[in-house]
């Protein structure tokens, strides 16, 4: 049955400096908390196998001889703007990769599996808190339609992990189209290993962009696709109020997926400069800065591949500068479409863009919930009742109340002028504004219970996140913004 997984480790075709062979450590008592059956189906792995003793060994990284050797990957990274020459997988092993049912090759990685060559003094373990956070938020992002790594399984290790407090040890089986990061390219650029950079670029082109393999300007086109992909990704983050929290270059995926869910969070009340991460003291990765940090990270990537684009450095710089200059255009174009649909419009216009910006300003002044405010537009339109929308705003003086009413009037007028029908507008409002997001207080409650061995909230959230645009009956409290006493103001990496 093990052979039916068809797992390879294609990354080992690269030179030995790219990775270290690493076996997951033996844990005292590994038990499965959850298996993502939908993802297992996509991976074409039999769910019956995963629930068997052989499957448990596979998920916990104790591979039999019929599977490839697991590895930990080398990479560097700019962390909060400062270069760290060697980071790497300090608590993770790549079990292997495989072609999935949709024809896409994906990695399966195990996090929290013990020490590796790259642990830098750490214990390589993970507590249940960070594992549950990543499982819930990554899967929530996927079902919201945002490109992301995904989570296949949560396992308990049977030991205790000491961080700020003692908690049950856990492991996460994570899936990604690739675990190569900007920091992977930086690792070899720092060491002036140009041949390795070329091999890595060729590996990623062959894996993710095979149509470019024979093109004369393949490295330029490769870079252009990554810039466009990252611009679209960050626009999607912004459209759902997501704050990554730690946008270091080692957390910037070459596959343009959201990767590494540390101190991440979805906003409750809207704040342009909102920061949750306890380590982001100066707001480098604040909500409104995400679209500024991404091109900075991509500039670091560009520096590593200049020699591939042209032997003449100044010519190569001109090429990448032109592509990077288009980041803002690509980001704004993506966000304009997303934001227009959040307001119920099929097409973007300067008027819809202006309405969106004005609404965000009003929401910030009125401490309005980001998700709830947009969600309320649908009911406001259906019931022709302005109070449904107005109730989102708190502590508003007469001038601001007038501004909100003015905004609502302008929005209705533009809908009448631009929508084919009220039904069409309602459809866009329904499909673009989730009713459920993985709010911080929900995650913290689930973690708190799980720490004590109660996974009931975790199970409910796993169910609700699969249908973020619908409301499931009998779970009202999971759809509401937090009460003042429930608001989570800070999130932590948990490593």
Quick recap of the structure?
Helices cover 44% and strands 12% of the residues.
Question: What features would you describe in this structure?
Answer:
With 495 residues, the protein is an alpha+beta fold. The chain folds into 3 domains: 2-182, no CATH class; 199-333, no CATH class; 336-432, no CATH class. The protein contains 17 helices and 11 strands. The chain has helices at residues 37-42, 47-50, 53-59, 128-143, 182-190, 194-208, 218-239, 290-309, 313-325, 327-342, 350-365, 370-383, 386-390, 398-418, 422-432, 440-451, 456-464, and strands at residues 19-21, 31-35, 71-73, 77-79, 82-84, 92-99, 105-111, 150-162, 166-176, 242-243, 265-266. The strands form 4 sheets. Strands 2-8-9-7-6 form a 5-stranded antiparallel beta sheet. Strand 8 and strand 9 (166-176) form a beta hairpin. Helix 8 runs antiparallel to helix 9 (313-325). The model has no long low-confidence stretch (mean pLDDT 94).
How many distinct helices?
17
Widest sheet: strand ordering: 2-8-9-7-6
In one word, what is the shape? globular
Order of helices and strands: EEHHHEEEEEHEEHHHEEHHHHHHHHHH
CA gyration radius, whole angstroms: 23 Å
Structural class: alpha+beta
Q: How large a portion of the residues is in β-strands, by DSSP E?
A: 5-15%
Low-confidence stretches: none
- Number of DSSP-assigned strands: 11
């Amino acid at each position: 049955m093990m052979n039916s997984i068809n797992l390879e480790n294609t990354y080992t075709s690269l030179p030995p400096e790219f990775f270290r062979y690493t076996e997951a450590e033996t844990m005292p008592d590994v038990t499965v908390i959850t298996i993502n059956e939908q993802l297992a189906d996509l991976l074409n792995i039999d769910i019956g196998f995963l629930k068997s003793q052989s499957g448990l060994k596979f998920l916990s990284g104790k591979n039999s001889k019929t599977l490839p050797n697991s590895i930990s990957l080398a990479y560097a990274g700019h962390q909060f703007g400062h270069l760290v020459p060697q980071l790497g997988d300090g608590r993770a092993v790549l079990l292997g990769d495989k072609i999935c049912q949709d024809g896409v090759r994906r990695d399966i990685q195990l996090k929290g599996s013990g020490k590796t060559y790259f642990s830098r003094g750490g214990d390589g373990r993970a507590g249940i808190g960070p594992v549950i956070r990543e499982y819930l938020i990554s899967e929530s992002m996927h079902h919201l339609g945002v490109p992301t790594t995904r989570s296949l399984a949560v396992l308990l290790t049977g030991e205790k992990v000491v961080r700020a407090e003692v908690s049950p040890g856990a492991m996460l089986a994570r899936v990604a189209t690739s675990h190569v990061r900007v920091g992977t390219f930086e690792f070899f650029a720092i060491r002036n290993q140009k041949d390795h950079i070329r091999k890595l670029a060729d590996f990623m082109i062959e894996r993710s962009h095979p149509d470019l393999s024979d093109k004369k300007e393949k490295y330029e086109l490769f870079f252009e696709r990554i810039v466009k992909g990252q611009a679209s990704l960050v626009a999607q983050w912004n459209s759902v109020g997501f704050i990554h929290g730690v946008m270091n270059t080692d957390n910037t995926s070459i596959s343009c997926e959201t990767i590494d869910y540390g101190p991440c969070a979805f906003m409750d009340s809207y704040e342009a400069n909102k920061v949750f991460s306890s380590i982001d003291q100066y707001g480098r990765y604040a909500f409104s800065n995400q679209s500024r940090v991404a091109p900075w990270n991509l500039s670091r990537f560009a520096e590593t591949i200049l020699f591939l684009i042209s032997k003449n450095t100044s010519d190569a710089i001109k090429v990448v500068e032109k592509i990077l200059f288009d980041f803002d255009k690509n980001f704004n174009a993506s966000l304009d479409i997303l934001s227009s649909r959040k307001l119920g419009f099929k097409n973007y216009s300067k008027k819809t863009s202006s309405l969106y910006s004005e609404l965000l300003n009003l929401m910030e002044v009125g401490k309005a919930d980001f998700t709830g405010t947009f969600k309320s537009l649908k009911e406001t339109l259906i019931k022709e009742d302005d109070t449904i929308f107005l109730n989102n705003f708190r502590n508003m003086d007469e001038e601001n109340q007038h501004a909100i009413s003015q905004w609502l009037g302008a929005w209705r007028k533009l809908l009448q002028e631009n929508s084919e029908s009220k039904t069409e507008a309602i459809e866009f409002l329904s499909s673009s504004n989730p009713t459920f997001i993985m709010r911080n207080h929900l995650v913290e409650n689930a973690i708190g219970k799980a720490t004590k061995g109660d996974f009931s909230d975790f199970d409910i959230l796993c169910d609700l996140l699969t249908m973020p645009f619908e409301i499931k009956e009998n779970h009202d409290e999971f759809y509401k913004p937090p009460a003042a006493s429930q608001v989570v103001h800070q999130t932590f990496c948990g490593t």
